[in-house]
Design goal:
The protein has about 400 residues and is α/β, with parallel strands linked by helices. It folds into 2 domains: about 180 residues, Rossmann fold (3-Layer(aba) Sandwich), CATH 3.40.50; about 190 residues, Rossmann fold, CATH 3.40.50.10300. The protein is built from 13 helices and 23 strands. It has an 8-stranded mixed sheet with strand order 14-13-10-15-18-19-21-22, with helices on both faces. Strands 2-1-5-6-7 form a 5-stranded parallel sheet, sandwiched between helices. It has a two-stranded antiparallel ribbon with strand order 3-4. The protein binds cytidine-5'-monophosphate (C5P).
Length: about 400
C-alpha cells in the first residue's frame, strides 16, 4: 500500500506551461490512492482546462473566491480547504506564485489557501532558466524552505523557451516519488500498528456508584495522536473520559472497567507492533456488584475488593516481538519501584510519572517523566506540555 493511500491532496496549479503535466500528475496521485482536489490560479486556466482536471480528479476544480456562475453564488472557503488537506502541493509553482507566497500576498484562492493551511506544503517550481537563476527567485525559495515548505527540485533539460538548463518542473513520477519518500521519512511508523490504553477504569459498586481515579486520559490521547501523526494505525482502548481522538488513523474503543479493557487488549495485542499501557487501571474491584442502589444506614459500609487483571503484566507474559511500554506512578522510592516494575512486567520501556513535582501527574496539561529502558538506564525529561512529552516518548521508542 502507498503512503499516499487515503491522503487528501490539495493540488495548486499556477500559470506556467508545465501546467499541462498536471493531468498526468493527478492521475498518478489517484492511482496511489490519494483523494485529489485542484485549485487553479485564474491565469493557469489558460494552460490546461478545469474541465479536464475536474474529470480526472473526480472533484470540482476551484479557482475564484466566489462561484458567480451559480444562481445563488457560493463562497469557496479557503480555510476549510486548508483544513481538509493532508498536504498542499503547488505544481507548477511559478516565479510569481513563489514570490507572493514569500511575501504573504493572497490575491487569489490558491494563495489564501496556502496562508490558511495547517498541513505540510510542497512546491514544484517551474520557470525559464533566467527566472530560475534570478537572485530574487533563489532567495524566495530559500525563505520558503526555511519556513518549512518542501521544495521539489526543478529539473534540467529543454525549456519551453528553447533554452536548455534548470527550470523544468520535476516530472510527475518524480514529484510522486519525492512526496512518497518525504512522507515516509516523517512517518517512521507507517505500516505499524500501535495499541494504547488510556484513562481511568470505573469499577461499579451498584448502578450509581463506582470506584475510580483522577486520570483524565490526556497523556494516552496525546500518545495516540503522535503515533497516528507518525503514520501508525492506532487502536486506543479508552476508559471513561470526555476526550475525543480526532485523527482518522485512531480507532477508539471505549470501555468502562478493567475487565473490559483487558478483553479489548486481548483482542488486538497479537497483531500490534507496539503497546503502550498508559491507562490508570483500577487494581481492585468490588467482589460483588449490587443490581439495585445500596441504601445507606447508620452502620459502616464494608466493601470487599478483589484484584483486577493486570493488563500490562499479561502483555509482558504474552510478548513475542512487540515493544511494550508501561507507566508507573509512585509516591516514594520511585526509581527503585519503577525499575522493579519494568522487570517484573517484562517491559521494554517504563515511563515514571512524578506526582511530587508541580505541573506533573493527573489532571494537568503538563507532565514530568523519567524514561527507564531495558538496561535500567534512566532518562529524565523536562517538565513539558503532555503533547511534547508524548512526542519525546515516541521519538525515544523509535530511536531504541
Ligand atoms: O503496578 P502498577 O499499577 O503500578 O503499574 C502501572 C502500569 O501497569 C501502567 O502502565 C498501567 O497501565 C498498567 N496496569 C495495567 N493493569 C492493571 C494495573 C496497572 O495494565 N490492572
Amino acid at each position: 500500500m502507498s503512503i499516499l493511500s487515503g491522503k487528501r491532496v490539495l493540488l495548486g496549479i499556477s500559470a506556467g506551461i508545465a501546467a499541462y503535466k498536471t493531468v498526468a500528475l493527478v492521475r498518478l496521485l489517484i492511482k496511489q490512492g490519494a483523494d485529489v482536489k485542484v485549485i487553479m490560479t485564474p491565469a493557469a486556466k489558460e494552460f490546461v482546462t478545469p474541465l479536464t482536471l475536474a474529470t480526472i480528479s473526480k472533484n470540482p476544480v476551484l479557482s475564484e473566491f466566489i462561484n458567480t456562475e451559480e444562481e445563488n453564488p457560493t463562497w469557496n472557503n479557503h480555510v476549510e480547504l486548508g483544513l481538509w488537506a493532508d498536504l498542499l502541493l503547488i505544481a507548477p509553482a511559478t516565479a510569481n506564485t513563489i514570490a507572493k507566497m514569500t511575501s504573504g500576498q493572497c490575491d487569489n484562492l490558491l494563495l489564501a489557501t496556502y496562508l490558511s493551511a495547517k498541513c505540510p506544503t510542497y512546491i514544484a517550481p517551474a520557470m525559464d532558466l533566467d527566472m530560475y537563476q534570478h537572485l530574487s527567485t533563489s532567495s524566495n525559495l530559500e525563505k520558503l524552505s526555511s519556513s518549512g515548505v518542501a521544495i521539489i527540485p526543478a529539473e534540467e533539460g529543454e525549456l519551453a523557451s528553447g533554452l536548455v538548463g534548470y527550470g523544468r518542473m520535476a516530472e510527475p513520477e518524480h514529484i510522486v516519488s519525492y512526496l512518497t519518500d518525504h512522507l515516509l521519512h516523517v512517518s517512521p511508523w507507517f505500516g505499524k500498528k500501535v495499541l494504547i490504553t488510556a484513562g481511568p477504569t470505573y469499577e461499579p459498586i451498584d448502578p450509581v456508584r463506582f470506584i475510580g481515579n483522577h486520570s483524565t486520559g490526556t497523556m494516552g490521547y496525546c500518545l495516540a495522536e503522535v503515533a497516528a501523526q507518525f503514520g501508525a494505525e492506532v487502536i486506543l482502548v479508552s476508559g471513561p473520559t470526555h476526550l475525543v481522538a480526532k485523527h482518522p488513523k485512531i480507532e477508539t474503543l471505549r470501555v468502562t472497567t478493567a475487565e473490559e479493557m483487558m478483553a479489548q487488549v486481548k483482542n488486538h495485542y497479537k497483531k500490534v507492533d507496539i503497546t503502550i499501557c498508559s491507562a490508570a487501571v483500577a487494581d481492585y474491584k468490588p467482589a460483588a456488584v449490587s443490581d439495585i442502589k445500596l441504601k445507606k444506614n447508620d452502620k459502616p459500609l464494608e466493601l470487599v475488593l478483589v484484584r483486577n487483571p493486570d493488563i500490562l503484566a499479561w502483555c509482558g507474559e504474552q510478548k513475542k516481538k512487540q515493544y511494550l511500554v508501561g507507566f508507573a506512578l509512585e509516591t516514594h522510592n520511585a526509581l527503585t519501584y519503577a525499575k522493579a516494575k519494568l522487570q517484573n512486567k517484562n517491559c521494554d520501556l517504563l515511563v515514571l510519572n512524578s506526582l511530587k513535582d508541580p505541573g506533573a501527574g493527573f489532571g494537568t496539561t503538563t507532565n514530568q517523566v523519567t524514561l527507564i529502558d531495558k538496561h535500567l538506564s534512566t532518562f529524565p525529561l523536562e517538565l513539558n506540555d503532555k503533547r511534547i512529552v508524548a512526542l519525546e516518548i515516541c521519538k525515544f521508542i523509535i530511536n531504541h
